[in-house]
């Protein structure tokens, strides 16, 4: 494990010198070859993506990748894979390597994907046992990596702030957490800790902004939508609250299409609409929606009737009041109701006659019934006290208000008692206190009327205009989000180079993920898209095979995806079992359907689907025609193998190894498809490969031949041909020959590995020998 101070100084110098590390302890035979670097990368990739990878295979892959970097300075794809292997699979302490890789990655690629940097940072932190060492590491990372990416800065500062918060130095902790939040206002962890440490400085406007950002981050979260709506209502931003509750209603109906809209959404939606300046008519619409669903809610009907009065339609209000009253009484109280259900029914009727359609006699009658069933209920006691005041029985009312915890109705009652006793100023303060408990309720409306009668006015403790200005500054006019169903928010496509590819061609693709919404798309653990992606393949045609988890990655862009914009994720499709099939059966004509999942989950029947099931997995179909093998075709390829250019040689080497594999796969069985073959072909193909490995002076060509033979069982002749490359003057050829032979040799090969580990002139080759099982030479 690296030690803090001396290592940190060294590492800061080395941030821009990763290729120098990759060249450590090499001999004078330094060479460059992007083609061979690619072979090493592909070999390591196949090892790394084997779900059953061993620690030894991880070490082998790490050596291949570091060698690839040495051969090709522009091999940027190597670093994320090297971070993954060194951090997750290797049993060695790779702290020094991971630290240097992290610096190089952040300088080059962190904007496109944060995940490799996160993996590296977690690994480095886990290597320390003390908080002080982890602190020192994070400070160093912030110093050396800071300013490259705001989201990464935010995560580093959050981790450091949380660590320092465990000490008495809360000022420094706050400073780092503020830095974290300023760099990424979607950072929930930083905000939560700030709210804990300095709650007195987190004003309502800032908290409201945070809730709105949380909703923007995951617009399919009903919890986030309700939280924002409730807090806006609490701050008396009724236009915002009403619009957001309507969003909640749309979202609920989308998420739970068979369930009725709950009162916890439609009642605050109605009361918020009632308190707006221009949207009281919405209350009538909400009530009508409930009626159409065959539902009756006395509280909602009362709000609708009061809204009709406000909109200048007293006749409609009267009809609604009468219909609601009749419906409430006709439904009665079923004998099967328990006391709690009866008390709730009676309390609603008492409230109706106290605040919605005032009637002193009916109010006291129903309040008495409620109180008789629930004498311990503060609500029932408050309603009875209020109805007593309505009937000018203030003494009895005063006794009730003093024996229970005071709620809003109790406060309004007490204020009227105080006024009756000539205590005007205390009454005004009591009324203001009552209003603040629920400013939008009908009880609060009555309190405001009484205040006005005393020539006093209620002023909100938090200026709604100030909070609204903060929201406008961040979101413009889009304070209330527009509901669109999740399947319309995100679209995903796998872009391939056409709909057909030939044997031996590259099969790469790019997954495009587009943000179709009007808000930034934040890919995160708390977002609507968490960044996980899976690609399955289904093969049809001459062969049939379903391949699950062909590709499984996580992508976390270093900044939000802007509305209407896309991110593009390169994916390697010629991998794993699909690669093996395509290279083993070159004459097979195949159709391959790729299916792309976002945040995949396994459902009850064992099937895979997207976490947001309404977003259907994207599909794309591509065809791979089989090669048509003729004598002329084979002769041309033989000629190119001996006389052609490097590109022709490498393609021929791959084809010949594939044809040999195909012959072996079809041996002693009926062909699975139309197959051109002859008894003389295997010997011819093998002879050509042996000639290339033993007579061709082009070491790069031999590298491609050996690479194609990795999945080909070697007989004695092929083994001997490969073994000749153990003495090649170029170290990549020696390393590939060693790796290929070690896959198929018995324990006697250990002597070769031990000798190589001790005497080979190149460090990569020596390290590979040790990773393959050689005894490490004594220092």
Description of the molecule:
The chain folds into five domains: 4-148, no CATH class; 220-331; 335-465, Tetratricopeptide repeat domain (Serine Threonine Protein Phosphatase 5, Tetratricopeptide repeat, Alpha Horseshoe); 486-624, Immunoglobulin-like, CATH 2.60.40; 631-744, no CATH class. Helix 20 (360-373) packs antiparallel against helix 21 (378-390). The two termini are 19 Å apart. It is α+β, with helices and mostly antiparallel strands and 779 residues long. Helices cover 59% and strands 8% of the residues. The protein is built from 36 helices and nine strands.
Summarize the structure.
This protein has 779 residues and is of the alpha+beta class. The chain contains 36 helices and nine strands.
Report Rg. Answer: 37 Å
Number of separate structural domains = 5
Question: Could you estimate the helical fraction of the residues in percent?
Answer: 55-70%
Distance between the termini: 19 Å
User: Helical stretch count?
Assistant: 36
> What sort of overall outline do the alpha carbons produce when their principal axes are compared?
elongated
Low-confidence sequence ranges: 2-28
What's the average pLDDT?
Answer: 91
For the sheet with most strands, the description reads:
4 strands, antiparallel
Number of strands: 9
Question: Beta fraction of the residues?
Answer: 5-15%
Strand order of the largest sheet: 4-3-6-9
- Coarse structural class: alpha+beta
